[in-house]
Hints:
This protein is an alpha+beta fold and 166 residues long. 26% of the residues lie in helices and 37% in strands. The protein has one domain: Aminopeptidase (3-Layer(aba) Sandwich), CATH 3.40.630.
Amino acid sequence: MPFTLRHAHPDDAPELHTILTSPHVVRGSMRLPFMPLNTTEDRLAYNRNRLQLVALDGGAIVGFAELLLNFDAPRAAHSADVNMIATREEDQGKGVARALMEAIIASCDTHLGIRRLSLTVWVDNTRAIDLYQALGFQEEGRMRDFVRTETGYGDAIKMARICSHH
């Protein structure tokens, strides 16, 4: 399914907030339930070290991606971290996350000059891990008890993709 991708705008906040506070996103991220709308509004404020994309299906926002850049740290400017990939629950499995990740990778490989692209994923998020591996990410390590969950603690995997032509 083709999606329209564009940079996130501040006026996307209400629609994005619905996605970012949905139970499946809270469960798969460091987000908390019941976050106020201004947390999403603040997140969308301009920051030159953040690339934020939305995926649209028709006029509806169906996905969000956030890339954290290190332009202000000269020795780390070649690296970036995928901080968030989130889709509407009803749009999971339709290629939204893949489209967002491919756009991030293309931006890193070309315009941004990023050599190292990393991310953190919960060990039980096998759908995401499979996608990241298919896109060239490799596991670098496991972090035990990385996130507090409803039932205790969960482990995370650090993954990275190195672009060899930088």
